[in-house]
């Protein structure tokens, strides 16, 4: 493993950026996720930042059940995130559908649509539990990267280079 | 040439998936079309699976922020059909927790608004103060957000004299903290620049479009469902908070002054709290008939229609929530403002999408 890969890996785990998506939650979990950012719990002191853009994020926090309308949006947000990425399902609804499980418009837990790494139970989950979930997800982030060998990294880099080279060509033609 | 910009469903200023299709001419909004359904769960249909006691837990999860008031209104409905009179102490306790919910909801909203116009420090201060209310909730009811103290026939938990004294103490501290952030709202250039004169809703518009709650009171109409004296409100002295200007600043000030009002109401309730039972026994209830109950949420008027068919499962529960009523006024406010003000104006009605779509 090269020096830069190591540096990247360390910094990613030291300062994970999270993006929060409300997927049909009752707001209970959402406000607890926001409460994590505020002075009492203050996860920003660990370098955990809440950002709006999934393209900048390492961890996706999903609260609430998935319904037929927002399943597509959730999938879209997940697909925009760069790898390695981790997904945390918050609350009873996020893990299994919770109290809304039998309602007609509910698909079920988040894992019906995208792969979930960490489940945080509770209705609503407490801020302490959510912070704990993020810490667990950091372990998953680290595993994901070390599982990939340098060959596949090189292949990815090559792919990216080709993509940008082609794009530059197109611009020249235009 | 006009541009259409999607605002949401996943947007940094909103914790919830509100989706507006905003038509722009240069930087000025000309039209806004709401797209709903991202949080729809079909919660009202659960009434055929869950019996009338279990439904209390379901309606609490219509909205996590004002859960106590939802459960309170639902219980009022069922008790109304069954003709049960609940003990006076239970009425008072319900309102104490409801007003605590109003405080935490308003502080939460004030923080979000501050975040929307980029004043991070005010956001942090509001949420720090809010944690005091959350501590009260956790200590007295066992959970931070959804506290589940209401049941058909009364309340589940009591407040001991020690706890009441402690709550009174916390309220004093809360008032001091609010006094400390008051100059920021009344004098600060940043706050006024972003809110004064932005998103104006005139008195006539507010009335005709059916605005409710602080959105209506911010436009100068003194209408508050609590004045009808449901629950224990008939024993309390208070006046609805009204501002005249109808802009985002007026709505902010209505909610800020309601925080003081809520503190005052809880103090009065603690002073007048009668002794007695917590609940009456409701055995094998099979309600028959229909009823409509209204109550005042932090966001405005909440309406429940409940119909029973003589079995332990209700036939229909229809919920009409305040944000649903406040969406047409929001659409009237948006045309003519700049794109950068859209998040502030959208937040100024205190949207609760989870309520609206259920």
Task: Give a verbal description of the structure.
The complex is a heterodimer of chains A (174) and B (358). Chain A contains six helices and seven strands, in the order H-E-H-E-E-E-H-E-H-E-E-H-H. By secondary structure, chain A is of the alpha/beta class. Chain A has one domain (3-148): Rossmann fold. Chain A is globular and about 50 Å long. Chain A starts with a helix and ends with a helix. The mean pLDDT of chain A is 80. Chain B is an alpha+beta fold. Chain B folds into two domains: 1-36, no CATH class; 39-341, Orthogonal Bundle (Cytochrome-c3 Hydrogenase, chain B), CATH 1.10.645. In chain B, a hairpin with a 2-residue loop joins strand 2 and strand 3 (28-35). In chain B, helix 3 (88-116) packs antiparallel against helix 4 (120-141). The radius of gyration of chain B is 20 Å and the shape is globular. The mean pLDDT of chain B is 86. Chains A and B meet through strand 1 and helix 2 of A and helix 4 of B.
User: Which CATH class of the largest domain in chain B applies here?
Assistant: Mainly Alpha
- Shape by Cα distribution of chain A: globular
Main beta sheet of chain A: 5 strands, parallel
Strand fraction of chain B: 5-15%
Q: Helix count of chain A, per DSSP?
A: 6
Give the spatial strand order of the biggest sheet of chain A: 2-1-3-5-7
Strand coverage percent of chain A: 5-15%
How would a textbook summarize the main sheet of chain B?
A: 3 strands, antiparallel
Distance between the termini of chain B: 37 Å
Which H/E pattern describes the elements of chain B? EEEHHHHEEHHHHHEEEHHH
CATH structural architecture of chain A: 3-Layer(aba) Sandwich
Instruction: Give the full name of the CATH homologous superfamily of the largest domain in chain B.
Output: Cytochrome-c3 Hydrogenase, chain B
Quote the average pLDDT of chain A. Answer: 80
Oligomer: heterodimer
Give the low-confidence spans of chain A.
Answer: none
Strand order in space, largest sheet of chain B: 1-2-3
In round numbers, the mean pLDDT of chain B is 86
The CATH architecture of the largest domain in chain B can be named as Orthogonal Bundle
């Amino acid at each position: 493993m090269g020096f830069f890969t190591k540096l990247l890996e360390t910094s990613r785990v030291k300062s994970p950026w999270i993006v929060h998506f409300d997927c049909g939650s009752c707001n209970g979990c959402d406000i607890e996720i926001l409460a994590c950012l505020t002075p009492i719990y203050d996860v920003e002191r660990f370098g955990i930042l809440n950002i709006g853009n999934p393209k900048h994020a390492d961890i996706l926090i999903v609260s609430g059940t998935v319904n037929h309308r927002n399943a597509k949006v959730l999938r879209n947000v997940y697909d925009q995130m760069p790898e390695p990425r981790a997904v945390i399902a918050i609350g009873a609804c996020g893990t299994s559908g919770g109290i809304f499980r039998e309602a007609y418009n509910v698909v079920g837990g988040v894992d019906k649509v995208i792969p979930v790494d960490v489940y945080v139970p509770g209705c609503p989950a407490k801020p302490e539990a959510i912070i704990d979930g993020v810490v667990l997800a950091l372990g998953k982030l680290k595993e994901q990267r070390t599982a990939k060998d340098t060959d596949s990294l090189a292949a990815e880099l090559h792919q990216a280079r080709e993509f940008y080279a082609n794009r530059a060509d197109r611009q020249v033609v235009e | 040439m006009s541009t259409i910009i999607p605002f949401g469903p996943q947007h940094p200023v909103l914790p919830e998936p509100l989706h507006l299709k905003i038509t722009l001419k240069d930087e000025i909004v000309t039209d806004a079309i709401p797209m709903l359904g991202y949080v729809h769960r079909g919660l009202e249909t659960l009434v055929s699976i869950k019996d009338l006691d279990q439904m209390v837990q379901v309606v609490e999860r219509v909205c996590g922020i004002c859960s106590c008031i939802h459960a309170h209104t639902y219980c009022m409905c069922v008790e109304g059909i069954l003709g049960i009179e609940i003990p006076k102490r239970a009425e008072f306790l319900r309102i104490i927790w409801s007003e605590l919910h109003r405080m935490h909801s308003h502080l939460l909203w004030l923080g979000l608004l501050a975040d929307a116009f980029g004043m991070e420090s005010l956001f942090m201060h509001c949420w720090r103060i809010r944690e005091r209310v959350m501590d009260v909730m956790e200590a007295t009811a066992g959970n931070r957000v959804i506290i589940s103290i209401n049941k058909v026939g009364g309340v589940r938990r009591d407040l001991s004299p020690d706890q009441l004294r402690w709550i009174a103490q916390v309220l004093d501290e809360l008032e001091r903290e609010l006094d400390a952030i008051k100059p920021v709202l009344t004098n600060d250039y940043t706050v006024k620049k972003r809110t004064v004169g932005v998103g104006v809703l005139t008195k006539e518009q507010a009335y005709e479009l059916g605005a409710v709650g602080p959105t209506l009171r911010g436009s100068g109409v003194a209408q508050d469902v609590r004045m009808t004296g449901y629950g224990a409100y008939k024993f309390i002295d208070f006046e609805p908070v009204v501002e005249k200007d109808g802009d985002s600043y007026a709505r902010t000030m209505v909610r800020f002054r309601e925080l003081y009002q809520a503190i005052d109401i809880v103090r009065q309730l603690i002073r007048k709290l009668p002794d007695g039972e917590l609940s009456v026994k409701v055995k094998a209830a099979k309600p028959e008939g229909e009823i409509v109950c209204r109550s005042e949420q932090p966001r405005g008027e909440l309406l429940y229609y409940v119909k029973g068919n003589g079995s332990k499962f209700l036939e229909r529960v229809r919920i009409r929530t305040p944000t649903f009523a406040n969406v047409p006024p929001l659409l009237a406010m948006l045309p003519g403002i700049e794109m950068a003000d859209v998040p502030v104006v959208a937040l100024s009605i205190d949207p609760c999408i989870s309520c609206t779509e259920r």
